[in-house]
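S., here's the first fold you wanted:
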Amino acid sequence: MSNLDRQAVPSVCGGRGFVVAEPVRELLAPRHVRLGESTEVRRLLPNLGRRMVGAWAFVDHYGPDDIADEPGMQVPPHPHMGLQTVSWLHEGEVLHRDSLGSLQTVRPRELGLMTSGRAISHSEESPKQHAALLHGAQLWVALPDAHRSVEPHFQHHSDLPTVTAPGLTATVILGELDGAVSPGTAYTPIVGADLTLNRGTEARLPLDPDFEYAVLSMSGETEVDGVPVLPGSMLYLGCGRTELPLRAESDAAVMLLGGEPFEEELIMWWNFVGRTQDEIARAREDWMNGNRFGTVHGYDGPPLQAPALPDVPLKPRGRVR
């Protein structure tokens, strides 16, 4: 998914200097952003107070939206570099096309994982014949320096491992949780999991104390370490936890995001993750000139135009603002 904000603001992310080294309960409110004409998302990362959780650098939550009489998601071809995109649905379908020739419909609880590496472009849209509701999350994972120029590739996994407890099912999207390992390729120590909880369930999820974590509420009412987290909001949890208490006040679903704090400082602007302003500027120029990022075939419409670069130079500000 693209960052369609026409006032794209560059931010410097990463570095361990701003990682919270102990458990905290920091509730993050979303920013509402339009994607095309028919989809509005709630953006949780980057956030006014926090830019990354482990290698997770971008989180959008959308829906549930009634698109029975609407075109649904329509995100034209756009570029990416230096990151992975993770497409995750609870309802509906998204048709993925990319400049490698990939054509894949992603359905609920299936992993669509695109590794941009040095350069790729893609589009995302609701199929012409689609379900009445669309509900999901789009996430980006920053690639570390050693892997950020890998060859681009796309993976689709419909069979993902689960961890179960009474009233709780955790589907492992990326990385590892309680011994269950996702088949998706990960380049840093990371975890992403979708948790479904039955009403009244109380559970304690095992965590890695060296990871930092956050929980995104997808639906229902959940208490996370005693804090009510409602759909479309995210609770940042810091590091140093060995387990996470959860209680479902209703049937609910949340996403657990975590990972080893990211060592490197990054610049994220529009749909690019880089290390210097010159690198970002070159990527923008290449996209606008039709170089490097390839062509997406089959989408009915023109590609996105990149917003203008800011007039002011970037200034490192760390993981939090």
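And the second, which I think is the more interesting of the pair:
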Amino acid sequence: MARTVLLVDGANVVGSRPDGWWRDRAGAAARLHGRLAVADTSYDEIVLVLEGKAKGGVPAGRDAHLRTVHAPRDGDSALSKEAAAARERGHDVVVITADRGLQMRVEGLGCRVMSPTWLLAVIEG
């Protein structure tokens, strides 16, 4: 059964606003996770990919419809891997990123891409 998956580039979303996130990457990741956990979306699953110091703000694992993935190296590789796996299962995937290289990689897999600004508008009302 095809599901809809929202795949979130955590670093890209957090970094899209100059609100001091760089002083507390873990805290910024935790705030984003909290907003995604209660967001009213039509997606069957939301996957938040975190890298670097941001991983300290949220443990890897599932919390209802929200799954957090800790990138072992760089976030782009983890996002591409998650996108490919979801597409192989036949799921419809929307990737949230402003990274042009990543956009091209996931579009080549058949994913749609939306901007961090779009996601923030959705989860903040």
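Why I say that: The radius of gyration is 13 Å. Helices lie at 10-14, 25-38, 75-88, 100-108, 116-124.

Talk tomorrow,
H.
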